[in-house]
Amino acid sequence: MRLSKFLVVTVLTLAIASFGSSVNAASSPTSGSTVNIKSNVLDEKSFTGLIIQGHTYVDLDGFVSCLPFQINSKALSFQSETKTFRVLNEDFAIPTPELQFKVGSDTFQHNDESFQMNNSVLLIQNRIYFPLKDIVSIYDINVSYDSQTKTIQVSK
């Protein structure tokens, strides 16, 4: 009798544990592998990005380093309720295009114009990740891979 209770408890525990891990895997995307990125769009900057399903993603710092204009940190806004990230163009010293991204969406707004992306904006471990090439291509910025240095190059 004790052995059968032990087996039932063990089987239930394993079933619950595997269910919990499958729920966690479905709710957050895999973080992928890291890649070194060098940008010389405005200044020479190096940072790390993620390769997820063959596409390069950058966090907010990397995103800002690849844009052809400066962004005042006061112009950045994230609304957790709607999972919307915005770059505001208000009375800040640096003129900036107004940008809006929504986590999970494959479109973004640039000065009230909508742009289609091949990949969605992601939220991984409470950090927003942007599909690099999809966004910077509207600014005629090149993204290429240097196989010798194993680095992604971002240049104007």
Describe the structure.
- Strand 7 (about 105-110) and strand 8 form a beta hairpin.
- Helix content is about 25%, strand content about 35%.
- A seven-stranded mixed sheet has the order 9-10-3-2-1-12-11. A five-stranded antiparallel sheet has the order 4-5-6-7-8, with no helix packed on it.
- The chain is built from three helices and twelve strands.
- It has helices at about 1-25, 60-65, 130-135, and strands spanning about 35-40, 45-50, 55-60, 75-80, 85, 100, 105-110, 115, 120-125, 125-130, 140-145, 150-155.
SSE sequence, one letter per element: HEEEHEEEEEEEHEE
What are the segments in which pLDDT stays under 50 over at least 5 consecutive residues?
A: 1-29
- Please provide the count of β strands: 12
> How many DSSP H or I helices?
3
Instruction: Summarize the main sheet.
Output: 7 strands, mixed
Spatial strand sequence of the major β-sheet: 9-10-3-2-1-12-11
Helicity, as a percent range: 10-25%
Shape: globular
The CA-CA distance between the termini, in Å, is 73 Å
Radius of gyration: 21 Å
> Helix/strand/pairing class, anyone?
alpha+beta
Give the rounded overall mean pLDDT.
Answer: 81
